[in-house]
Amino acid sequence: MKQFGGPVLFLDRSDINTDEIIPAKYLTEITKEDLKPYILEDLKLPGFDPKGEKTKAARVVVSRANFGCGSSREHAPWVFEVNGITAVIAESFARIFRQNMFNCGMAAIELSADTIERLFTYAGCADAAISIDVAGQTLTISGGATSETHSFDISPFDKALVLAGGWVDYADSKY
Fold first, then answer.
1. How would you class 33 by CB atoms within 10 Å of its CB: exposed for 0-12, middle for 13-18, buried for 19 or more?
2. Per-residue pLDDT tens digits for 122-133
3. How many Cα neighbours within 13 Å face the side chain of 15?
């Protein structure tokens, strides 16, 4: 079964759009793998390096509200997928981006602003990591000598998509 979680990349901003996740000029690439080096290339945040070690090591992204807004394209979740990122956690998501995450077998987890703020207290920890139990609908963040667990909601159908590995694998198992 697919593992969800690992080192965290904290992106402290709302309204991160799909053009910042994967610039439109790369949408002509032939394979998902061809998108890999361009992850978050156009995202401008103080101290953020899209080619840096934190980005390369990340398996989970934590951000603010309205993540994945902008153009509705599957390329944005795909670039996360080929870079080993299995989950994005935010206050809210653009509807199409969120569904594309589920369709690709990745977790898009919505948490309250207060809980997101709690997660961001770990941003300064070099070893910040999140483990996610999609079936049990919990996540545990750890860093330094502390950890905490939070519950999240996901619809039964979206959970089934994520646990199956995405829409294609889900459909193959049902039809």
1. exposed
2. 999 999 999 999
3. 0
Say how far apart CA 159 and CA 137 lie, in whole Å. Answer: 9
Average pLDDT, the chain: 96
> d(Cα 134, Cα 102) in Å, to the nearest integer?
12
Buried-exposed string 107-143: b where 16+ CB fall within 10 A, e elsewhere: bbbbbeeebbeebbebeebeebbbbbebeeeebebbb
Residue 11 banded pLDDT, cuts 50, 70, 90: very high
Q: Is 73 left (phi over 0), alpha (psi -120 to 50) or beta?
A: beta
Element spanning 139, H or E: strand 138-143
